[in-house]
Design a protein that fits this description.
The protein is an all-beta fold and 179 residues long. The protein is 0% helix and 53% strand. It contains no helices and 13 strands. It has a 7-stranded antiparallel beta sheet with strand order 2-5-12-7-8-10-11, with no helix packed on it. Strands 1, 3, 4, 6, 9 and 13 form a 6-stranded antiparallel beta sheet that branches.
Length: 179
């Protein structure tokens, strides 16, 4: 399989955190806190989840430049904390905003690299899976983000190093996988 690299989000850039905004459960009455900040080496998505007032999630997001439609893979480099997170992609198509998620687990204090194929993302709306959503295509993606909602009160800290948007040639697609 050959690959071609396109867009990179570099979290070791001291200004990167300023491009991100936080959306926590306080939009629904919760009291969880979370934000992205630069720690001198890289950016950390950090905070504390609370289940009070039916809360329990924290998220960050950022707008991105238009991607090439050939991009089919996202590679994430991070240092984990033992929690499960969602990598989230937002599209706007025909006036509709759709979010797509891919869960990933982390290992505490271990630097990891995970690859996410676009065809494995699931369309969601307020935590519920959407049936019959359009296929996720890279040139429709307008935002990238992270969400934690593990249904327990706890601090969290996801160290982010880099996101690469890539084209992987000759990789399986939903249409090429036998039933």
């Amino acid at each position: 399989m050959s690959e071609q690299q396109f867009e990179i989000i570099d979290f070791t850039n001291p200004d990167e955190y300023q491009r991100w905004s936080a959306v926590n459960d306080n939009v629904m009455g919760g009291i969880s806190i979370g934000q992205l900040h630069y720690d001198g080496n890289t950016c950390r998505f950090q905070g504390e989840l609370s289940l009070e007032n039916n809360g329990g999630f924290s998220s960050i997001k950022r707008s991105i430049e238009s991607l090439s439609k050939e991009i089919n893979v996202i590679e994430l480099m991070f240092t984990g904390d033992g929690h499960t997170y969602q990598l989230r992609l937002t599209t706007w198509k025909n006036g509709d905003r759709i979010q797509y998620k891919h869960d990933f687990t982390t290992t505490k204090d271990k630097q990891q690299k995970k690859t996410f194929h676009l065809h494995n993302f699931q369309a969601v709306f307020r935590g519920r899976l959407l049936n019959h959503a359009p296929e996720l295509v890279a040139d429709d993606i307008k935002q990238v983000g992270f969400l934690i909602a593990n249904k327990q009160t706890s601090p969290f800290a996801l160290g982010l190093t880099q996101i690469q948007f890539k084209t992987l040639k000759n990789h399986p697609t939903p249409q090429s996988i036998p039933e």
